[in-house]
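User: I'm writing a tutorial on reading structure tokens. Could you give me a worked example: one chain, its sequence, then its tokens, then a sentence or two explaining what the tokens reveal?
Assistant: Sure. Here is the example chain.
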Amino acid sequence: MNRTIRVSAVVLQKPDGRVLTVRKRGTSRFMLPGGKPEPGESPVETAMREAKEEVGLVLDRERMELLGEFEAPAANEPDHLLISTVYRHPLVGAPRIAGEIAELRWQSPDEHADDLAPMLLLNVFPAIG
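And here are its predicted structure tokens:
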């Protein structure tokens, strides 16, 4: 791995346990809503802003629960290591495609599709059980 990418992301789950995943335009892998921080932004602020920009959900900072900081190969940038600060937040409202998102999919953590980002498979799904 030559380079490191830092991001923040958020787990949003339906009562049946399925997790909201998104696929960005021009990419083939599904991942959590999230992205890179803007200058001066904290990880939690990044996750909240990205959720609003990508799926139209306004999250409450008080309800953001840190799931952990994880490392995995980046899904869309070869030879890059992804370091992701991942939060959990109760599902509020109905997510919709916005910003750079091409597709939404509710994914069961037990079903390991071959188009999921390594971060989900290696770290997030095992952490949420």
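What the tokens reveal: The chain has a mean pLDDT of 95. The longest helix spans residues 43-55.
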